[in-house]
Amino acid sequence: MNSKDGGTVGKKCQLTIIAIFIIGAVIIILCELFEGVITEGFEIGIELTAITIIWLYIGRMHKRVRKKFEETKEKYKHLIDTAPDAIYMIDLDGNLKMWNTKLKELTGYTDEELAGMNIAKLFTPESLEIVKEKIDYKVKAKKPTPPYEVALKRKDGSIVYIEVISAPLLKDGEVVAIHGFARDITQRKKMEEKLREEEEKYRMLVEMAQEGICIDDENENIIFTNEAFARSLGYQREELIGKNIFEIVCEEDKEKLREESRKRKRGKASRYELRFVARDGSIKTFIVSAIPLYKDGKFIGSLSVNLDITERKKAEEEVKRMLEKEKEFKRWTAHYFFNPICIAKGHLSILMEEVPEKYSKRIQKALHAIERVEKVVYNIVTRGEIKE
Asked: Do 227 and 152 reside in the same domain of the chain?
């Protein structure tokens, strides 16, 4: 039965008792009015009967009210004892006055051990200071405190973490006790600690990575960057946070970046080459590998791994320049060697037809030697090999 039902029963009892008293009073008044007719003994009998009826009815109603009270008390005691959180009440000195089954399970103490126990025994020194501070506030401000977390020391010495929600209990405007709820959050704390450890591990991996890592939001504003990316562009990390990525990209590459950003907003990852403007104005070339980021199915930005290939590009340009120089060398080598050789072979061939036969054999040997030189030059120019 709730408090509303109890109030209704109480009102009914009061009205019934009042009605009985009225009936009794009416009987007594009638006895007075008909004093001459009714004998004194009969009058006394009637009065005693009325009083007895009233008394019996009051006793009956008292039993009914007490029974309802006991039922209600038992009902709420059951609710308190089966509550998933620990429920307690302490006096202003911190002594326990009421607790439920969950508090026993939480602390490991029995009812007998908890009776009159001071909360100083239930908390670690650091947590006890927090609890005392919260109690002082409630007593002075006469207001509840926001939820807070403390470490509870169990009977076996183990530590559990609880979240406390408590408020002052007022009587005539003064704080007479503190009552509240305590929820076991040990598993949540362990999970949070594990998440912190994982976060720290991955943070170290990100910070130790040689590649630049950058996260930007849906509007291409930088919200995270690791040290490697900032260092490669000559910035401090704090200087890059909040910048729009387009602010540090070469003008010639901005349209490429727009197209790649549109791809990510469509859910596509991509890999491409992009040139950035460093803090000192120099141009840095990166290979960018970017993926889209989503939360609850909504695009919220991009994560990119940026490999600085500036030196590699310089080396490639140098190699390209050297190859061009080599081609130029071969071209001029062919020009300066093959032309004279062709002229020499031509003159010797004509000379063979004009000289006596005894000299033609020598000229033939000279032509053969020139052809050998020609083959060597050809191999040098075409294959880079010095051989016939």
From this structure: no
CATH number, domain with residue 168: 3.30.450.20
Count of C-beta atoms within a 10 Å radius of residue 127: 20
What is the maximal distance between C-alpha atoms in the chain? Answer: 196
The candidate with the shortest Cα–Cα distance to 293, out of 371, 215, 379, 386, is 215
250: phi then psi, degrees, rounded to nearest 5: -55, 145
Query: Are residues 214 and 303 located together in one domain of the fold?
Result: yes
pTM (two decimals): 0.47
DSSP 84-150: SSEEEEE-TTSBEEEE-HHHHHHH---HHHHTT-BGGGTB-HHHHHHHHHHHHHHHHH-SPPPPEEE
Contacts of 146 (CB under 8 A, 6+ apart): none
Tokens 């004998």 locate to 39
State which residues of the chain have pLDDT below 50.
1-6, 9, 36-38
> Which token pair is 314?
């310089």
Query: What does the alpha-carbon distance between residue 292 and residue 307 come to, in Å, rounded to a whole number?
Result: 18
**pLDDT tens, residue by residue, 54-92:** 556 566 665 665 666 555 555 555 566 667 889 999 999
Q: What is the number of helices (H) and of strands (E) in the chain? A: 11, 10
Q: Kindly state whether residues 353 and 299 are assigned to the same domain.
A: no
Among the listed residues 253, 243, 247, the one whose alpha carbon sits nearest the alpha carbon of residue 217: 243
CA-CA distance, 220 to 265, in Å (whole number)? Answer: 11
Determine the straight-line distance between the first and last CA of the chain, rounded to whole angstroms.
115
Q: 351-361 pLDDT, tens per residue?
A: 777 777 777 77
